[in-house]
Amino acid sequence: MTTLPFYTAVTDDFEAVNQLIMRQLHSRVPLVEKIGNYIISAGGKRLRPLVVLLGARTCGLADERPHMLAAIIEFMHTSTLLHDDVVDTSDMRRGRSTANALWGNAASVLVGDFLYSRSFEMMVELNDMRIMRVLASATNVIAEGEVLQLSKVRDASTDEATYMEVIRSKTAMLFEASTHTAAILADAPAEQVEALRCYGDSLGIAFQLVDDLLDYTGDAEAMGKNVGDDLAEGKATLPLIYTMREGTAEQAELVRKAIQKGGVEDISLISEAVRVSGALDYTAALARRHSDEAISQLAKLPASVYRDALEQLARFAVDREY
């Protein structure tokens, strides 16, 4: 992943963050380290720590404090992954077995709790109440988004507004908190702080929309998860919501029954329905609008290789195939 061009501006920073993450995983309880190392070493794109680094450097911060903030954000994100996989009863993430599949739900939840609490210990080390306030609030919003999504599982009446509320809370919030706190850490002017906050929000929404699009068009091996996973869990994502709203009566009924039932027995028929109904084009266009909005915010920031990388990342968000 790190060969993508928007990583190159902060290659050394990124390596320093990876080393810090491994040091901060230390625990006197071996199983904590074992599970923590397993899920952290699974890799992934590490986009949230990336935008911390790029955001802070864009605002002119030249010291090592962004390394700690980036590690904090990655710990918060990783803890949500551990909890998500338990809630969703997932057995595969990033192309390999989930922690709960290997060590059980109890251990996964508790190590997720450890990573959350360790992230707040690290926040105290940063000694900036402004950052603590943003991240504490973000933690609450993310949890609310998770619960809202859970309450809508197998609910075929979920509308687009509710879906957008879920993804803004569950996914975009941590992107927003990442760029927002990076600007705060840099003591950037208010206009730059707000621009980076809005950039993170729009970027996160674009990423989640494309993730939900790829659930019907992507390659399971490239994505590291099974195609149709959301449908199998009974989640009404935007391609499905649009198909029920704008498709034929037959298409709407097919999707409605699949959401209510869960499972992927009719995945090929549903994939065809979301394509023919225009749902994929609609979702892609909405993702593009949010990517464009993210890019428009960057005009308020000083020109640099870091700002260029943030623009490249926003374009990658909607052009990717995994």
From TrEMBL:
Record's keyword annotation contains Magnesium: yes
Listed cofactors: Mg(2+)
Key words of the record: Magnesium, Metal-binding, Transferase
Upper classification of the organism: Bacteria, Pseudomonadati, Pseudomonadota, Gammaproteobacteria, Pseudomonadales
Source superkingdom: Bacteria
Name of protein: Octaprenyl diphosphate synthase
UniProt source species: Halopseudomonas pertucinogena
Family assignment from sequence similarity: Belongs to the FPP/GGPP synthase family.
Keyword Magnesium carried by entry: yes
Any Pfam family the entry gives: polyprenyl_synt
SUPFAM superfamilies per record: Terpenoid synthases
